Amino acid sequence: MSQETLSDFPLELEGADAPMVRFRQVTKRYGNLTVLDSLDLDVAEGEMVTIIGPSGSGKTTVLRMLMTLETINEGVIYVDGKPLTHMPRNGGLVPADNRYLRKMRANIGMCFQHFNLFPHMTAIENCMEGPVHVLGLPKREARERSEELLEMVGMADKRDQHPSRLSGGQQQRVAIARALAMRPKVMLFDEVTSALDPEVIGEVTNVIRKLVGEHNLTMLMVTHQMGFAKDISDRVCFFFGGRIEEQGKPADLFGNPQRERTQQFLSAVKEAS
Amino acid sequence: MSYFEFLAEYGPRFVDGAAVTALQTVLAAVLAIAIAVAMGLMRLSRNVPVRWFATVYVEIFRGTSLLVQLYWIFFVLPLFGITMEKFTAGFVAVGMNLGAYGAELVRGAILSVPKGQWEAALALNMSPAKRMVRVIFPQAFLAMLPPWGNLLIELLKGTALVSLISVADLMFEAKQINSTTFLSAQAFGTALVIYYVMSRFLITPFMRWLERVMARKMGRA
Ligand SMILES: Nc1ncnc2c1ncn2[C@@H]1O[C@H](COP(=O)(O)OP(=O)(O)OP(=O)(O)O)[C@@H](O)[C@H]1O
Ligand SMILES: [Mg+2]
């Protein structure tokens, strides 16, 4: 991470059209490998953006950087108008410290490919953990909130089961409820159906569909399910080599891709399925 | 003298000795667990001096003999103004020694918790301390119970050395009885059986029970 003060980046994004998420010239490297290459990406409030692309193109990295699971090498990420990876200091931006990160992280929730539920807690305890021990909510209130969310994802009847007693699809639905219980403004889904048996994928995608329809959440989703992406996205970004090769409305990107790499990728995916 | 007569005569002293051994074991175990958790966590600290301190501790106590450590604590520390009762010196030496081995169990168990658990806890915006206490340690605890069972048996056996600084434990009594009666087979045979019973019929079943209880609590049963 570059230690000097960044002066070319605004300290805040203002105005009615400020995006909920903004990547500005974001570069991420692992050693010599450049995984994100000066990436620019805006996501508007309430927008559902899907990221597709070949393996290794940096899709997961985009989400992990937003979740602050990875550090940034160059550029700045903004969330809800404020810098996420950096904090204002002396009129410029410096790398965020842990306290600042914790404040900003409250805006973001994430669901993982392998659910990552806490195995020693029941479904509802998983959901209550954050509200009680991070937000400091009274237990009763956290329980009510969690019960509502488990109801919403269709898991109310399994609330007292440990994850080991739940199928993959059920675990993923609990994981979505757990993330939502923190009331994030931005939700991240990283291949949340990839580890599931085909017959239970629908129960998870239906939950996400519901979120798109009923909530004003801003969502970023990485998926290999093109049909699902086409159905529910406001916008689809095709990633290639750590950059956005092409993006647009799902009907345009899937129906009439402009770039050769997009066409190749989409036809390869079609053949495989 | 038949073995029954031997037991009638010296049984009470074996019982007394066994009680001291049991107490030494419990106190040493409590100390070992506390040290193991502290040192195990410090070994994983981001802070270099903290990590370094724990590494040196573990190296010293694992790399030298328990008997030498016991003598240090009982005979050498008083020269530096730290004097302990022999009973205290006994379980402190055993606890500090086994704590160093335990630290490696704690560290290993924490590292064995999948990375995804850390990431999920971070995604819920938990503080580092909450992540450890609420998410990682409970899972590590379950994973480290079986090796701790073995370590506690080692610890019980290790307490026999405290007889060398005249703590009146089971081994001490056995040696005393042997030197007055010259009935070595009876004296040491009885001690052998008592140690075996303590490890196999007390510690092992207790640890199995604890594993079952914890596994059930964590939804793994
Ligand atoms: N911790 C790491 N250390 C080194 N390289 C990494 C690390 N994490 C990811 N990479 C590399 O970064 C590149 C992008 O990874 P990323 O996980 O973002 O890809 P992806 O588009 O999500 O791929 P997939 O579809 O396979 O999930 C890959 O080449 C990967 O090997
Ligand atoms: Mg990925």
Automatic annotation (TrEMBL), chain A:
Family affiliation: Belongs to the ABC transporter superfamily.
Listed InterPro entries: AAA+_ATPase, ABC_ATPase_HisP-typ, ABC_transporter-like_ATP-bd, ABC_transporter-like_CS, Ectoine_EhuA, MetN_ABC_transporter-like, P-loop_NTPase
Chain ranges of the ABC transporter domain: 21-266
Cellular location(s): Cell membrane
Protein name, per record: Ectoine/hydroxyectoine ABC transporter ATP-binding protein EhuA
Any GO molecular function: ATP hydrolysis activity
UniProt KW Cytoplasm keyword: no
From TrEMBL, chain B:
Domain ABC transmembrane type-1: 18-203
InterPro entries with a match to the protein in the record: AA_ABC_transptr_permease_3TM (IPR010065), ArtM/GltK/GlnP/TcyL/YhdX-like (IPR043429), Ectoine_EhuC (IPR014342), MetI-like (IPR000515), MetI-like_sf (IPR035906)
GO molecular function: transmembrane transporter activity
Entry's Gene Ontology cellular component terms: ATP-binding cassette (ABC) transporter complex
A GO biological process held by the record: amino acid transport
PROSITE patterns to which the protein is assigned, alphabetical: ABC_TM1
Keyword Glycoprotein (UniProt): no
Family membership: Belongs to the binding-protein-dependent transport system permease family. HisMQ subfamily.
Official protein name in the record: Ectoine/hydroxyectoine ABC transporter permease subunit EhuC
Organism: Stappia sediminis
